[in-house]
Amino acid sequence: MIYDKHIFICTNQRAAGAQRKSCGEVHGMEIVDAFKKKLKELNLPIKLRAQKSGCLDICDFGQTLVVYPEGVFYVGVELSDVDEIIQEHIINDRIVERLRIENVRKK
Q1: Does an H or E element contain 101, and which?
Q2: Of 41, 77, 90, 95, which sees the most CB atoms within 10 A?
Q3: Which residue segment(s) compose the domain that 11 sits in?
Q4: For the segment 47-57, what is each residue's pLDDT rounded down to a tens digit?
Q5: CA dist., res. 58 & res. 66, Å (int)
């Protein structure tokens, strides 16, 4: 199946004692579950999928996810950001600039 929007949320967990943090240790699966629950509730008229993914290799910026087909990477994502990402990016096709990696790197 081809999706209109496909959300990959990092849930990677590094081995104990690893020097780099990982998204799965923070709240990766909680964010996956929040996206799935909210998208199901909204029952939007487009083909959507939110799913866990392995490492997206930018964990240093915090919890990471990417939305396709645009290829927009969001970093430092908190549970409180899920509704905004869905409303702005998924429904209204507007990027949440404050979470976009290009803007976070500039800080």
Answers
A1: helix 101-106
A2: 77
A3: 5-106
A4: 999 999 998 88
A5: 11
